[in-house]
Amino acid sequence: MTYWEILTRQLPLLDKKEQEKFKNTKITVIGCGGIGGEAIEMLARMGVGELVLVDEDSFDITNLNRQTLATFEDIGRDKSAVAKEKVEAINPNVKVTNYSKHVNQDNIDQLLKDSNLVIDALDNIPTRVIVSRKARELKIPFIHGAIHGSLGQVSVFLPTTKSYEEMFMLPSSGKQLNEDVIEELENVVSGTPPAFGPTPNLVGCLEAMEAFKIITGIGKVTVSPKVLTFDLLDFSSFSIDEI
Length: 243
Known about the structure:
Layout: H1 3-6, H2 16-23, E1 26-30, H3 34-45, E2 50-54, H4 79-90, E3 95-99, H5 108-112, E4 117-120, H6 125-138, E5 142-148, E6 151-157, H7 164-167, H8 179-186, H9 198-216, E7 226-231, E8 234-242
Parallel strand pairs: 1-2, 1-4, 2-3, 4-5
Antiparallel strand pairs: 5-6, 6-7, 7-8
């Protein structure tokens, strides 16, 4: 089984040079749950060259309604390790490294080292700020996705565009990330968001496609300050707005 055989149905949609760009791409996905699990699987199936998978958590029974990497047998296992196994089972051509650790300002350099872009599949704002700032510093795209219930949003932040903090007017914008500022960020959103199963999975698919478009150069990317939003309870709600 070769790399190109796996992509037989995809190749008529782009030329081989464009696909080779994706084959030579390294992507870091931070978060291997609902959003991240689907993004990871799609990236593997679309033929990404290398993945770095990061998540400090393990699967529990409440993940089964939406996190496609989770099975009953995986409860208690590290999400990043399960994600690595799934990628290797889908497409053994992909090089995969996984980290089961909390992302912070001390290790973010290691996690994003040599990556061409980073996918945000996080569920908390302080870590998003840390990752988005480092991506901006490294001059790589930061692909953002978030959900709440049936609501989802996706946007891409480039080094030359309005930042994640600026676009969403976070209290940390322009400030050093000390303990007080991180506490302010933690208070922006409280509690664990509810979720219908399809919502994070759709966001993950969209993030993977944005990554594919950025690397290959095909299609239009939803770049900051534009954001794609939707409500799965109202299909007429799908829109691209500018903040």
